[in-house]
Amino acid sequence: MSAAGPSATSKVTGDAQVEAAILKLCAQNPEGVGNDMVTGPTGPLAHIDLAARVTALNNLLRSSKVALFKQGTQLLYKAAQPQDNRTKGLSAEELLVYQVIKQAGNTGVWTRDLKVRTNLAQPQVTKMLKALEGKSLIKSVKNVNNPSRKLYMLFELEPSREITGGAWYTDQQLDREFIEVLRETCFKLVERQESPHICLTDIAHFINSKGLARVELREEDILTIMETLIADGRIESIEPADEGEPERYRTAVLAVPHSTPFTAIPCGVCPVMDQCCEGSQISPQTCVYYQTWLDF
């Protein structure tokens, strides 16, 4: 009786050993393992049959134990983190697109950049994006600074303030009504607290504690509002007397008037005043606005 060939069990064990060798190589090179190191004829795994290495590598990719990255023009393999297990079953192209999007973080990545970084054709990129969106692994967001440009990021991430516009935007639109409400609230807080005068931290704490905004406002957000009130001449800042003390605010001692004697007359705001003279087509005698003002 002839000797029996290798059993299915011994083959699985052999595949597992090749996979273990690839995982060990990835662990030894956390920055990534090039394709030549895994499948090359002179790499550290050259003693293993090439077909066995390719099969093991594909198994690791499908099971999300190894992740595929692109650095420059080179493809790299890295040992996947535990949370990457949800990408189990993705194709090599889907994994590549997913990893590039993951690297972009909460700032997102544009489809054109995806095409460059993955070296995939645009139809392929579009197909991979639809597949990943369908599995709720990624999502698309709009950039307030460029609404026509669609960005992609991981499904669970919140877009950065640079993308959403922060507290001042709602559905990618500048929320002017909210900004004006916030301006009036800040002004009333300054007006109400005379001694000691109110500081930025106190204003931010009050607004956040009252839930006036959809998101928690940072002090730099409130500072932006305060600067608009200063520019309007409604409040002014008080430099701290001692080092380490916060800057405080009070209502403006010399408030900027809404109008001056010159701007109160039609000539003061007339866009063609420099062309106005006696006897010309544009003159005080023919000015309907001047006559209306005199009648008033």
TrEMBL record:
Keywords in alphabetical order: DNA-directed RNA polymerase, Nucleus, Transcription
Family annotation (SUPFAM superfamilies): Winged helix' DNA-binding domain
Key word Transcription present: yes
Superkingdom, natural source: Eukaryota
GO cellular component: cytoplasm; nucleoplasm; RNA polymerase III complex
Subcellular location: Nucleus
GO biological process: transcription by RNA polymerase III
Family designation: Belongs to the eukaryotic RPC34/RPC39 RNA polymerase subunit family.
Function: DNA-dependent RNA polymerase catalyzes the transcription of DNA into RNA using the four ribonucleoside triphosphates as substrates. Specific peripheric component of RNA polymerase III which synthesizes small RNAs, such as 5S rRNA and tRNAs.
Protein name: DNA-directed RNA polymerase III subunit RPC6
